[in-house]
Design brief:
Blueprint lengths: L1 E3 L15 E6 L5 E6 L4 E5 H5 L11 E5 L6 E6 L5 E6 L3 E8 L17 E9 L5 E6 L5 E6 L4 E5 L5 E5 L6 E6 L5 E6 L3 E6 L17 E6 L16 E2 L5 E9 L2 E8 L7 E4 L5 E6 L4 E2 L5 H6 L5 E2 L1 E6 L4 E5 L7 E3 L7 E6 L5 E6 L4 E5 L7 E2 L2 H9 L14 H26 L26 E2 L2 E2 L10 H17 L2 E3 L5 E3 L4 H4 L42 H7 L29 E4 L2 E4 L15 E3 L19 E2 L1 E7 L2 E2 L5 H4 L6 E6 L8 E7 L2 E8 L3 E6 L4 E5 L3 E5 L10 E2 L4 E7 L2 E6 L3 E6 L10 E2 L1 H5 L16 E6 L5 E5 L4 E5 L4 E6 L1 H6 L10 H7 L22 H14 L5 H12 L6 H20 L2 H18 L2 H12 L26 E2 L2 E2 H12 L6 H10 L20
Antiparallel strand pairs: 1-30, 2-3, 3-4, 4-5, 6-7, 7-8, 8-9, 10-11, 11-12, 12-13, 14-15, 15-16, 16-17, 18-19, 19-20, 20-21, 22-25, 23-24, 23-31, 25-26, 26-27, 28-29, 29-30, 32-33, 34-35, 36-37, 38-39, 40-41, 40-42, 42-43, 43-44, 45-46, 46-47, 47-48, 49-50, 50-51, 51-52, 53-54, 54-55, 55-56, ...
Helix pairs in contact: 14-15, 15-17, 17-18
């Protein structure tokens, strides 16, 4: 092993040596490129470095230097094909250089040696918002990836250097990038303490940004080895092994110790750590070649018996130590301590894998040259290819078929494309098949009978041609040749009077094929037997023509001396900036002493901030005669709602929505000009999932785990799947949407005319026709005074339960739901119960809280049969009653009604009013829970009702309740006789379940509650015997069925 450290190999300045941040060796091993803090990229001759101990003038040292950056250069990398050299700096720019064959230009006024090679700037790439920290080329040189302190990963084409994609996947500075030698992945390391693996397919040379939408996909994120890694390192340069098996990641930690994490491919975990560095590591670099542990024999190499192959890796960092490891030993092969005065910033191996270059922040560049056998014996390059074949390195992306069926499908697809291309080409060239030789059908659909009749010209029969007859094949070939000849020799006369041959379009000659959809007009004209080659009249619709020039008749007569429009300016000229229209300028203003001269106000320039509300929505004319008129939301410039774990949150800002990385952010942006389209985007972690443009402004958005939906200003609703595929055609409504809500597959929309629409997106149907809100809005327009009227209430919210029932709350505190089986609105909560019932506020919105405080478990075990299933309509009735409390009681509206009830109670005939209202309130709750299918609440309210009836001794109601609960349990013997009877619903159904509960279980609970009341025991004992309750056994827990009537 030899250490070479030439004194001239540095970025020297007048007062000090500048830091060297990066180094790279060319693929042929003859050049070393270095980048430093002096803003220069220097290219050195490696031969001069190796022979630095000999006479200095034998070979040139510095081949070239480039200073096209405005700041410190952090990374420099040769492309694997050797054509380009890329450098990235803190001026946010990436420069790409190429070697010009011409002689280098002489430089004056510098102390630099004259350049030997002519490296010129080929491209300047602008795409970062902060320092460019690292660069890497793919192994086929098809792409260049740059990372920087703006947290972005930018992918550039290696052919055209067009920006293909910007990936904002990281949450902090990105400081390292490495490519998979099999050309399937690349890895980026960031200060957010993660390494992200991206899968990609090498783009074609002419690929554009639009072609790469689905390329460069995040495969996985690795964070375990970096959970407490320090953020003090300048770089996190990682490296991929030449056999493709491992990634070496710098700045990892193993407990409190700095380490290098070895990440295994496919599993993407790090069970191996290289421990030995005393400070954080900044750079790791695998040798590009595989090594034999034992010197192979020539015969063994010929037979393929080469033995074990290992990889060699070098690591360095802030401890100024260079360590070299291989996969065969558990300890480093070489440790070079205090190799430099400051941190080692970059490492570069020569292509033969035997020489290592190390650059340091102290300005030095050290060369470590190994002798044969010190690291191992270098394997042939074919061994690298063999190791990479299992990862598909020799295959282009998805170029190989997965199985026989895939290959057959591909062949059929290609055959269909070729047939379509041939037919299009035949149509362009005038070549028509024999099947299209019939005459053109006339307008009424009947074909002309006289097939042999020659065509007429101006009413006279045309003379038949006297040419000899040809076969159809020869005739078609002659027509094709004639067509091409005429196209090629078409002569046009220009404006200057000169003749020129019009160029033949590629599409006309059939030599090219566009990948875009081609417009094909299919009609009766395709059956013509001849084609007219004369040019047809073309109407240019790109610019509207008014018939008169700008300025009208006066401009046409007198001319227009004004400057041409901006659209007609030359491309090089910049249009004059337009003034912002500010209306008329005031001359006088009304002051304290009368009219005063107005102060001059500066004309506003620059960007005008976009207001939150752009304009009111355009209303449907039908609103003028509608019975119900609801307010339409105004057009907002930006609507943003995050979807957190399948639940749509309220509108918020992008910063708040992005705090939870798993949030899917749904945004709609409207333009100030009503004619401009609106833009709908769905993003996650800053990456665009899908987007859509709509012709009208978006006013409402909603989403669930099943679909996304927006409502537009023109009364249309657009629905997409979670992946952004349109689920239905736009749904057109009678007026603008006012409320848009969804739950699971159900979608609810209320329009400005008060029409309620409900759809099931899973079955693409509606459970009931559109229903009007008029009954529940007009019913409250009452008055206690003869000559005045209180205004009708407004809608505060509208929701769906999990079975698609509509629940609406109003500003007066009332709560309604639509009973679609009865086609009628039903009231669940109102102020009457709030002031008259003893059971108001006796429940909580949580069913579990209700069950634990008021009612015992549903069974002895305390376990429900369907515990995994979500409760249907759970919490709707408590929600509505809580809304009534907030709107009616807490806002002081109940004073008048409480006063009336108090006066009624004082009268003798209304002394039982409070008790009666309380029982009615419980009955109202039970009926609502039964209709909505609210299982837990139905059981709770039923037991509360049973205890109340028992306390009041209402024998008739108790008997009817028990009969209703027992239902068809006693009718099993007479089932055949009653088959013809029509089955009822709810209480009158003959099924064994009611509202999801077993009737016997409910009846047992009610009987046990009523068993305490002696005046009802004669009745309840009969039902206890029917249920075969073992009354002598004390196993029945009566207290567990007790209900608090608070």
């Amino acid at each position: 092993m030899h250490l070479i450290r030439p004194s001239w190999l540095s970025h020297s300045g007048e007062q000090k040596d500048f830091e060297v941040y990066s180094c790279s060796v060319s693929p042929d091993g003859k050049r070393l490129a270095t980048a430093g803090g002096d803003g220069h990229v220097r290219i050195w001759s490696t031969d001069a470095i190796y022979d630095s101990s000999s006479t200095p003038d034998t070979k040139p040292r510095q081949l070239c230097h480039m200073s096209h950056h405005l700041g410190t250069i952090h990374s420099v990398r040769f492309s694997p094909n050797g054509r380009y050299l890329a450098s990235g700096a803190d001026d946010k720019i990436i420069c790409v250089y190429h070697l010009d064959k011409g002689p280098p230009a002489a430089t004056f006024g510098t102390n630099e040696p004259p350049p030997i090679e002519n490296w010129k700037t080929y491209k300047r790439l602008i795409g970062h918002d902060n320092d460019v920290q690292d660069l890497a080329w793919s192994y086929d040189s098809s792409i260049l990836v740059s990372v920087g302190l703006d947290s972005k990963v930018v992918v550039w084409s290696g052919h055209t250097f067009e920006k293909l994609k910007t990936i904002p996947a990281h949450q902090s500075h990105v400081k390292g990038i490495t490519f998979d030698p099999a050309n399937k992945f690349f890895a980026t390391a960031s200060d957010d303490r993660t390494i992200k693996i991206f899968r990609f397919t090498s783009p074609a040379p002419n690929a554009t940004q639009h072609d790469m939408v689905n390329n460069f996909v995040l495969e996985t994120t690795i964070s375990a080895p970096f959970k407490s890694s320090p953020l003090t390192t300048y770089f996190r340069r990682c490296s991929w092994s030449p056999d493709g098996n491992h990634i070496a990641a710098a700045n990892a930690v193993n407990g409190p110790v700095s380490s290098v994490a070895i990440i295994e491919r496919t599993r993407w975990d790090s069970e191996i750590n290289l421990i030995g560095h005393e400070a954080p590591t900044e750079v790791t670099m695998f040798s590009p070649r595989l090594f034999h542990t034992v010197k192979p024999d020539k015969d063994a190499v010929a037979n393929g018996n080469t033995g074990q192959l290992v990889t060699v890796i070098a690591s360095a960092g802030q401890d100024k130590t260079l360590s070299i490891w291989n996969t065969h030993t558990s300890r480093p092969v070489v440790i070079l301590q205090d190799l430099a005065g400051k941190s080692i910033s970059d490492l570069a191996w020569t292509p033969d894998g035997q020489t290592l270059y190390a650059s340091s922040l102290d300005g030095s560049i050290v060369v470590v040259k190994f002798s044969e056998g010190e690291l191992g014996w270098v394997a042939l390059p074919e061994e690298n290819d063999k190791a990479l074949q299992k990862y598909g390195a020799s295959r282009k992306g998805m170029g190989i078929a997965e199985d026989v069926d895939s290959l057959m499908l591909e062949n059929q697809s290609k055959e269909g494309e070729s047939r379509a291309a041939e037919s299009r080409m035949g149509a362009l060239m005038g070549d028509f098949s024999e099947s299209t030789k019939e005459s053109t059908p006339v307008a009424n659909g009947t074909k002309s009978k006289d097939k042999d009749k020659p065509p007429t010209t101006n009413g006279q029969p045309a003379e038949p041609e006297k040419k000899p007859e040809k076969k159809p094949e020869e005739e078609a070939a002659d027509k094709t040749a004639e067509r091409v000849k005429e196209l090629k020799s078409r002569v046009t006369v220009g404006k200057d009077g000169k003749k020129r041959v019009a160029p033949l379009l590629v599409s006309s000659s059939g030599t090219g094929q566009s990948s875009l959809p081609q417009t094909q007009l299919v009609g009766t004209t395709t059956t013509k037997t001849a084609q007219n080659d004369a040019p047809q009249t073309i109407i240019d619709l790109t610019k509207p023509f008014d018939g008169l020039p700008k300025g009208g008749i006066a401009a046409m007569l007198l001319g227009n001396k004004r400057r041409a429009a901006d659209a007609e300016l030359d491309e090089e000229e910049e249009p004059a900036p337009k003034r912002v229209a500010s209306g008329p300028t005031p001359i006088l203003t009304n002051g304290a002493d009368g009219a005063e001269p107005a102060a001059l106000t500066p004309v506003p320039h620059g960007v005008v901030p976009t207001p939150e509300f752009l304009r009111p929505a355009v209303l449907n004319p039908s609103m003028s005669f509608s019975q119900v008129r609801l307010a339409v939301p105004r057009i907002r410039s930006h609507i943003l709602r995050p979807l957190e774990r399948g639940i749509l949150q309220e509108e918020t800002t992008l910063e708040d929505a992005s705090r939870i990385p798993e949030n899917i952010i749904f945004e709609a942006r409207n333009e100030s000009n009503p004619r401009d389209p609106s833009h709908v985007t769905v993003t996650k972690r800053g990456a665009l999932l899908w987007e859509e443009f709509l012709p009208r402004a978006v006013i409402l958005v909603t989403a669930s785990q099943k679909f996304w939906a927006v409502a537009c200003e023109d009364g249309s609703i657009h629905v997409w799947t979670p992946a952004g595929r349109r689920l239905t055609n736009p749904i057109i409504l009678e007026a603008q949407p006012v409320i848009l809500e969804c739950r699971d597959y159900w979608l609810l929309c209320i329009t400005a005319m008060g029409q309620v629409h409900v759809w099931d997106m899973k079955t693409q149907s509606s459970p009931h026709p559109p229903v009007s809100l008029a009954p529940i809005l007009d019913i409250a327009t009452t008055s206690l005074n003869q000559h005045t009227a209180t205004p009708g209430p407004g809608v505060t919210s509208a929701h769906l339960n999990s079975t698609g029932h509509v629940v609406v709350t109003l500003t007066n505190g009332d709560g309604y739901y639509y009973g679609r089986e009865m086609y009628a609105w039903q009231r669940l909560s109102e102020s009457w119960w709030a002031v008259g019932s003893q059971y108001w506020n006796s429940n909580d919105s949580s069913i579990s809280a209700l069950q634990s405080t008021a009612v015992g478990p549903a069974s002895k075990d305390g376990k429900e049969k369907d515990s995994k299933k979500a409760s249907v309509s759970s919490g709707i009735i408590p929600f509505l009653e809580r809304h009534t409390t907030n709107e009616f009681l807490l806002k002081g509206r109940s004073y008048g009604l409480q006063r009336i009830i108090k006066m009624l109670i004082q009268k003798r005939e209304a002394e039982n009013l409070e008790s009666t209202v309380s029982v009615a309130h419980l009955e109202n709750r039970i009926a609502g829970a039964l209709t909505l299918g609210s299982k837990e609440e139905f059981r709770l309210y039923l037991f509360m009702y049973a205890k109340r009836l028992g306390a009041e001794g209402s024998r008739q109601k108790v008997e009817e309740l028990l009969n209703s609960l027992i239902g068809g349990l006693l009718d099993e013997k007479n089932k055949e006789e009653k088959k013809e009877e029509e089955a009822g619903r709810g209480w009158f159904s003959k099924e064994g379940d009611i509202c999801g509960w077993d009737r016997k279980e409910l009846l047992k609970g009610v009987v046990m509650i009523l068993g305490k009341f002696r005046e009802l025991q004669r009745l309840t004992l009969q039902y206890a015997r029917v249920l075969d309750l073992d009354l002598e056994d004390g196993s029945v827990d009566v207290d567990s069925m007790d209900v608090e009537a608070s």
